[in-house]
Amino acid sequence: MIASIPSAVLLGVDGRPVSVEVHVSNGLPGLTMVGLPDAAVRESRDRVRAALVSSGLAWPRRRITVNLAPSGMRKAGAGLDLPVAVGVLVASGVLDPAAVDGLAFVGELGLDGSVRGVPGTLVLADALLDRRLVVAEASLDEARLAGGSCVSAPTLSEVVARCTGRHPWSEPTSRAPAPAVRAAAADRADSGDLADVLGQPIARRALEAAAAGGHHLLLVGPPGAGKTLLATRLAGLLPDLDTPTARDVTRILSAAAELPPGAGLVTRPPFRAPHHGVSAVALIGGGSATMRPGEIGLAHGGILFLDELGEFPAAVVDALRQPLEDGVVRVSRARGSITYPARFLLVAAMNPCPCGGAGMPGGCRCSPAARARYSRRLSGPLLDRFDLAVRVDRPEPADLVGWRPGEATAPVAARVLEARRCARRRGVAVNADLPAGALDELAPLDTGAQDLLGRHLRSGRLSARGLHRVRRLARTLADLDGSGPVLGVPHVAEAAFLRGDRALLLGEEVR
Amino acid sequence: MSGVRDRERACAAALVGLPGMTPVRLSLLLDGLGPTVAWSAVRAGSHPGDPSRRFAEPARATEPGEVARRYADAGVSVLLPGDRRYPAALVGDAGAPAVLCAVGDPAVLEARPAVALVGTRSATPYGAKVASGLGRELASAGVVVVSGLARGIDAAAHAGALAAGPDAAPPVAVVGTGLDVVYPKENRALWRRVAASGAVLSEAALGTAARPRVFPARNRIIAALSDVVVVVESHRDGGSLYTAEAAARRSIPVCAVPGSVFSHASAGTNDLLADGCTPVRDADDVLAAVALARQGRGMSGPLPAARLRTGSRTDAARPAPAPADRVQRSVWEAVDDTPTSVETTLLRTGLSLAALLAVGEELVDQGLLTAGAGWWSRT
Known about the structure:
Distance between the termini of chain A: 89 Å
Oligomer: heterodimer
Largest interface: A-B, 39 and 40 residues
Shape of chain B: elongated
Number of strands of chain A: 16
CATH architecture of the largest domain in chain B: 3-Layer(aba) Sandwich
Helix content of chain B: 40-55%
Number of domains of chain A: 2
Number of helices of chain A: 23
Structural class of chain A: alpha/beta
CATH class of the largest domain in chain A: Alpha Beta
Largest sheet of chain A: 5 strands, parallel
CATH class of the largest domain in chain B: Alpha Beta
Low-confidence stretches of chain B: 308-317
Radius of gyration of chain A: 28 Å
CATH superfamily of the largest domain in chain A: P-loop containing nucleotide triphosphate hydrolases
Strand content of chain A: 15-25%
CATH topology of the largest domain in chain A: Rossmann fold
Number of helices of chain B: 15
Shape of chain A: elongated
Mean pLDDT of chain A: 85
Low-confidence stretches of chain A: 173-189
Radius of gyration of chain B: 24 Å
């Protein structure tokens, strides 16, 4: 007899529907699995058999053939255990085919017959929206985020009991309940409050502008100046994700098995800080059999923080350039190609030179050769993507005496939100996305500001390409201060300063 | 000059240019033998100073006459000990170069006192200002300023000496590279002016590129040429401390310019002061040290015009006028004489960043502040 059970497997951040066909016939007892299963899928033969036997169900002493259709696509993961088991039960006549009609199954089986959750349940459920999906109890919340009809069962014998109607499905099977939204305030506390930052008014202003305008931020400073502290505070300044982005973020986290159990829809922007030993594949994605999304995908909608930018291999850092430009990653491998969104705020921290002292005259003790080697590691095109490049120094204690404590996260985040509203009224998500052609209309300059930029251009402090970036940044600063549509000298001067001199990055010689 | 002497110079230049030649190996080869004899012996592979005969093969591929023509074409003269133009200060020195290449006129060193002004390549505005001020005043007082034409202090000292005008004593540079290799490249104009007015010396063959070990070696020549060595600004492990050490070994007085105890760039010079070196506040301090040094060695010749405490101190000692405007004044007061970051100034003044940047630019335009990338300092 033959059975065909719908299920799905994970590839990248998408679920691919798979039909599990089981044929039971006379012949030498045994189970053959065809249709390009990978190791974990092939092993399901033993798990399924043990689970059936432990659940008090008969393992047919006949020849079983399992085909995973479409048979040309590689299948990975243990989520096919449950559909294979159900298929065997139907094909051997234990279950009536009508009992599983309209159902799809995703789940891993334990040897004792328990049903376990699998990574990527959300995206798998997305691929099976036309059916009622049976998943493990632990995965039910996640599966519901897809918006389809889902049910769960704790064990294989319960699955059989509920399919046949002997027991009811554990949960109401109507529309999914409203996704659980995590308390935004609690999440902000995770990343620490901006009030912890003492002094450092320039770095604070840069953080605010980065959060409001989506400007990539480079923090340059000696070790121990608080670059990492500042970067982690940035996550708290970003507003909650809008629903489409939140769905994308949740899907990516689910596909990467990083969605915490019971998390619901992720509404806070993620913060990813890969170590500088990260490989290009881990950063961009496509590594494992399921072509797991990389760190930049996991940072979608949030922040990718690269601490010690100078220590990252050049090839790894340069792989960021295309996603930074397009906002999506395309990874092609022999197994197939995947595309997923990766629109993130890039924040990087680095020492100005190996000894950390460059940037202030007389501060650097490196040899010119060591400095040159260090600066060669950073590609100019990448450095150019940073709209904000500020120097972070250890504040001198004497200068902090009597300095009022810094503003807390909440009021700054409110200004950020307001500035983002201004940007949306212009038709972009953030000011960093303002098209160059529309700058004259959306970010007009008064005569004083025009003179100022002209002086900067003539003196070589600003390149023609930098000009647009300074104007976008000035727009953001003006939005944060709630000033009018025309940009004046103060905001343009401030933007030119915060964009930073390229010499600032690698220290400057005094002649 | 006889043809014999020309042949000696050609052979010496050819020896210097052999691959793998170092000052020590060269003096070993020339020790007790004239360049001509040494050259033939090296070429024949029979020189006792070259037991492994490493130089024999390249020497056979070299024609001294050809080498001499290249030097002549480049305008470089080759000086041997005993030549009239070979600096007298080097004669009898244990580390004297066996062969010295020169552009310009090394005779400017004769009958004039010489002071080495050396220091770090990553100088602060303070160090650069002191170096150029000392360079100018010493040159005006008839002292030859000797330095290395490196970035930072060296360049500032030479520029200062040249700024003293055509009547002042011309500067002399001792470089580590070949005389046809300008390093660092941004000093090309300065290099030409020093060569045109005084002299640029090197013990390296034409074409020798900048390598880390050539610079400490040339520092001994700078020290040996000078009556007094002044370290203007140096890190704790700075290369200019080699010059100070080389001077101390030759009993040449070493002076140092004091700096802020917070400045890394003055850590080495402040250490020298703690070790008992003479502090330098202005050119008069240096002139006094020069007079003492020359008297102590029984040198004849005119002493520099020491204007002990009669003239005005270097500009640095004169208080700069504070701006009259209240806001400008508060910003100016928040900036130190040493580079102060914009962030520190912001903390000290409590102004908004935009306002501070505007005031800072005004002060720079008025010449009261110097601006760098993210820092200001008082001028």
